[in-house]
From TrEMBL:
The keyword Metal-binding applies. GO terms for molecular function: hydrolase activity, acting on ester bonds; metal ion binding; N-acylneuraminate cytidylyltransferase activity. Belongs to the KdsC family. Homotetramer. Its cofactor is Mg(2+). Keywords: Hydrolase, Magnesium, Metal-binding. Substrate binds at D11. SUPFAM superfamilies: HAD-like (SSF56784). InterPro entries: CMP-NeuNAc_synthase (IPR050793), HAD-like_sf (IPR036412), HAD_sf (IPR023214), KdsC_fam (IPR010023). It comes from Epilithonimonas hominis. The keyword Magnesium applies. This is HAD family hydrolase. It comes from the Bacteria.
Length: 172
């Protein structure tokens, strides 16, 4: 199944799930640049990417802006409701979507989309409910692996990598 929308959580998927604070109450997150290639690959196929996360931080907004992510929703408690609104806008169903999440706040959406995944370090209960458990942990390129898996299943990975190498996109 080639999704018409790729959805991702952030904490525990693009990050290792840790939250770092300095003594002046600044929050830090460590992103892996491998995941930006997942966004690029989706863009090369004209598949929009949606970040839907329970946290609300400027850091995630900056990362999404840098990568030109089409949809960013932060501070979300009901992820299904938000994704249903995106689906309505795109005239697609939840079954046309792929989602990677890592914890219980992702579970209802993981169970409703057409293809679901979690990182290797997600709780076992979550892993037992998804179609794919990545070999990578959150913060180590799990989102990219998720997108690459979708492309491999659709015999598109080599073509997309060739386009990326030919300069049709930039990761960072």
């Amino acid at each position: 199944m080639l999704p018409k929308l790729i959805i991702t959580d952030i904490d525990g998927v693009w990050t290792d799930g840790s939250m770092y604070y300095d003594q002046t109450e600044n929050e830090w997150k460590r992103f892996n640049t491998y995941d930006s290639a997942g966004v690029l690959f989706a863009k090369l196929l004209n598949i929009p990417v949606a970040i839907v996360t329970g946290e609300d931080t400027k850091i995630v907004g900056r990362r999404a802006k840098k990568l030109n992510v089409e949809y960013l929703f932060q501070g979300i408690k009901n992820k299904v409701e938000i994704v249903e609104s995106i689906c309505t806008e795109l005239n697609i169903s939840l079954q046309d979507c792929a989602f990677i999440g890592d914890d219980i706040n992702d579970l209802s959406l993981l169970q409703k989309v057409g293809f679901s995944a979690s990182p290797k370090n997600a709780p076992e209960y979550i892993q037992s409910k998804v179609n794919l458990v990545t070999n990578k942990k959150g913060g180590e390129g799990a989102f990219r692996e998720f997108v690459e898996h979708i492309l491999m299943e659709n015999n598109l990975l080599e073509d997309i990598i060739e386009k990326a190498v030919a300069g049709h996109g930039k990761t960072s």
